[in-house]
Specification:
Length: 482
């Protein structure tokens, strides 16, 4: 390959122009490609102006060591964004390096950096007091370290962390010190099973309470996104009323997991939706609502893109029709009906006839009383559907499923737990042959899997041999038993 020489037209350009061209390249391209072309390009590729963002996207982040990141930081005196997401081997040494050279740091993402602890976070917080976004999910950071960071960073806009770090004490500091907060995402840690450490058992049973919601709603008036997935939820309708009354900019409310109080009812959801007409996402896992609530949502929140409720046994087809007649931007819709479901094929017809039918990419219909005909209507009228949950839809048959699969051209994932579909090897193989090559996962009932030799099990079972034959047909598809 011909080397780049001084006679090259590119090298005749001023350094400032070349650096401007290089600014469109990623960190990986600067290190692994440009720096190897010639000495001139190597020197220019290390210009501090090119290293205002250090992101490990594109690298093999699992193998990135402290020394690699520290080398970047040494010539990144003006770094504003540091994203080390998925860098399992990174330790507190990197944060100490940032504290020396990165006082202008604004965005920090440490998700899945399993070795990062309070010591590193505190060291960083002492030097970097201009942080805007922070993500400490799946790290060893605790309440102590996060509280210290929040005290030192009054301009924080976005925070993502785990329940054991975002406690009542943390919320008190957050609501007092970080008035500009717009985005709060609390998610349970999910550490990789390949990383063995007794320190990783961080998911303590921290409960989300009314007091925590009230502190946030009363003080963080700029909140737009509120995602609170605690292991235990102890809030009532008053909490939703608080959010609706005081967070005028709220666009996303997601509250999930188990509840130790009465489920959220019509009163709370209506109080939220009548006051938060800009809602784009509403996801409440523990509810006890009626058609009236869905009618109010349909009238007040017509810009909704994602709607999900759990335990909606009293909701009927009329409620679904109201949503479909007004919320035309929906791309994700989920109603978990319960054992006494009143949702039938009529709901399916209203979904198929709604303008949102062409937008829907996710549809979850747990416990709906839909038939094979209803399933075929979904298949023919939702062309971009990627995920479909038919959990506990007991009226469906293999015949109906096989017929509908011919029309699912985009489907990636299908959940069939609790149905009468795909209960033996023959049905599993027939199912595999009808799926598109892009199919990614199917969720089946765990009791269907038998690990004994085929000759030792009844014909109405799925065996390991059947799973292997399925994988031969669709090697990229995963079978999940729950």
């Amino acid at each position: 390959m011909e080397k780049v020489s001084k006679k090259s037209k590119m090298n005749k350009l001023p350094d400032s122009i070349i650096i401007e061209i290089f600014s469109y390249l990623s960190s990986k391209e600067l290190v692994t490609k440009l720096a190897l072309v010639c000495k001139t390009w190597r020197c220019l590729s290390y210009d501090p102006s090119l290293w205002r963002e250090i992101q490990t996207d594109g690298f093999s982040s699992i193998n990135i060591q402290d020394s690699t990141v520290l080398r970047f930081i040494n010539y990144a005196k003006t770094v504003k964004t540091l994203s080390l997401r998925g860098c399992y081997q990174i330790s507190n040494k990197v944060l100490r390096g940032v504290s020396i050279n990165g006082s202008r740091l604004q965005n920090l993402n440490l998700e899945n950096c399993f070795k990062i602890t309070d010591r590193g976070i505190i060291t960083l917080a002492r030097a970097c007091q201009n942080l805007r976004t922070v993500n400490t999910l799946n790290t060893l950071v605790t309440e102590h370290g996060l509280c210290y960071l929040l005290q030192e960073n009054k301009h924080l806009i976005e925070l993502t962390s785990a329940p054991h770090t975002v406690t009542l004490k943390t919320i008190q500091i957050l609501s007092t010190n970080c008035k500009h907060l717009e985005y709060l995402h609390v998610e349970q840690n999910e550490f990789t099973p390949n990383y063995k450490s007794n320190k990783l058992n961080q998911n303590k049973l921290v409960s989300l309470t009314n007091q925590m919601i009230e502190l946030l709603a009363s003080n963080c008036l700029k909140l737009q996104v509120l995602i609170l997935r605690y292991p235990i939820t102890s809030i009532d309708d008053h909490a939703l009323w608080r959010i609706g009354s005081q967070c005028k900019r709220i666009e996303c409310v997601e509250i999930g997991q188990k509840t130790h109080t009465a489920p959220l009812s019509d009163n709370g959801v209506i109080a939220l939706c009548t006051r938060s007409t800009n809602l784009l996402r509403l996801d409440l896992k523990e509810t006890f609502i009626t058609d009236f609530t869905l009618q109010v949502i349909a009238e007040c929140c017509q810009s909704l893109e994602h709607l999900e409720f759990g335990n909606t046994a009293t909701v009927s087809d009329l409620g679904v029709m109201s949503i479909m007649n007004h919320c035309h931007n929906l791309d994700s819709f989920s109603l978990r009906a319960g054992v006494h479901s009143r949702l039938t094929d009529l709901s399916i017809f209203s979904i198929a006839q709604s303008p949102c039918a062409r937008n829907l990419i996710k549809l979850s219909m747990k416990d709906w009383n839909i038939t094979d005909f209803g399933l075929s209507v979904i298949a023919k009228n939702l062309p971009h559907l990627l995920y479909l949950s038919l959990e506990q839809c007991l009226l469906l048959t293999n015949t109906g499923l096989e017929h509908s699969l011919k029309f699912f051209h985009s489907i990636h994932s299908l959940e069939l737990t609790g149905t009468k579909c795909i209960t033996n090897d023959k049905e599993l193989i027939s199912f595999a042959r009808l799926l598109p090559d892009s199919f990614q996962s199917v969720v089946l009932q765990a009791r269907s899997l038998i690990t004994l030799p085929n000759s030792s099990v009844p014909c109405d079972s799925i065996t390991e041999d059947g799973c292997r034959r399925f994988s031969d047909i669709l090697p990229e598809c995963e079978i999940i038993f729950v």
